[in-house]
Amino acid sequence: MVHLLSEFGGTRKTTFNVSLKPALSLATFGVIITAAITGWAAHLILKLPWQEGLLIGAIVASTDAAAVFGLIRNAGFELKERTSATLEIESGSNDPMAIFLTITLVQILQINSSKIEGWLFIIELVRQMGLGLIIGFAGGKLLANLLRYLSLPSSLYPLLAFAGGLSLFGFTTLLGGSGFLAIFIIGAIVGNTSLSYSDDINKFHDGIAWLSQIGMFLMLGLLITPTNLIPIIIPALAIAFVLIFIARPLAVFLSLIPFHFPWREQVFIGWCGLRGAVPIILALFPSLAGLEHTQTYFELVFFVVLISLLVQGWTISPLAKFLQVDLPPAAKEPEYLHLSIRDEKEKELFIYTVLEGCKAEGVTVDSIFSMKGDQVVGVVRNGSLLNDYEQHALVCKDQVIILASNTERIEIGKFFGPVILSNNLGYDDFFGEFDLNPEAKLIDLANAYGVDASSFDKDLSLEQYILNQFHGKPVVGDQVKLDFICLIVKGVENKKIISIGLKLKSSS
To answer: Which pTM value belongs to this model?
Structure first.
């Protein structure tokens, strides 16, 4: 519960806009497909009843993309937004489905009646998902409004958000709904609501999540007996093979068919199905329900998760480079101070420090800020507020006070972000040294470089051509090759390409 609340509390709204539908497809149909194939394999390998085999498949069906992003960040590069957004949303939204399948199958095994299994499954699905959706949306809106309008000491807002989420989770579970789905929706709603103390709330939840994970892994370590793992090595390896090389890739392929994902990204997403702590926790549910052979199931799942981390973990970085789904690392968001202003416009005061080498250094305030709604209040230099600050060029260690909304913070921060001193992919090496006008005609470019243009529409622009290749949903880093020419998308706003780079094969 804490993991889901924390994970989606910091997810930006733009992330949902990019890949919400494909991620939810993976989190529902993908989980079911993965559970079915893996469960069938467990049924054949371990010679278990199909219900118990499917239970094992459901337990290992959820992924842990947090491990993926940890490995990516350590490698020093970023993923394309379409890929990263899909993995990020899937990682949080597939846990409720896996939990639902696990709980339902445990109940079926407890009842042990084949006549009502199908009806039980359908009834449980409707009840848990329906109540989870209703209470999640209603409770999320209620909690967000309480956090926005209640006047409390600043230290109590993180506690109110946590206690509110915990209470709604318990209330949903008490009514027979999916508390995990409800808390997933609540976290997404609260995390994307403009609140006075949203940063404090996210930091508090992140700390609680880390504390919970420490306690969880300590408990799991006490439950494992290493000598008991030896007899199950062979069947665990076989099940892990089916999960990694068959179930997950097939589930990704089938779930993403309607969304026209590039094949390179499908392969990468299919390989990034790392299993983490959630499957190990779910492996405890049969034991809590008093089922037979529960210790064997737990040790089997533990070993499968371990194999997944070892086999897939160290290959993610080189595979991202090989499949060309990586980007040069983006500059980190600069540190800032902020003070919320309670009014209907939801404005905040942001204080940024001018760092050496950043875009803001050496230029005047008037030449930087042209965004709608933002306003520079003042510039502090050497402890004194400058008069006529609009005419002064900003220097290192100046503090700039800006009145803006929280949604404008990301764009403002680009002017004050630190300079990337080194990276694995040079900016020019990746995007090319030449910038092209998206409105330029494709046939003119082909003729200029001696590329066969007989099949090109004479009225087709570069932007239209790239949009057609990616079904109208391009992201930064998308590439289109024309003979020895490579066109790379450098900038996208509202699904419109604003900048295109050109790179020749000879320069790569």
So the answer is: 0.79
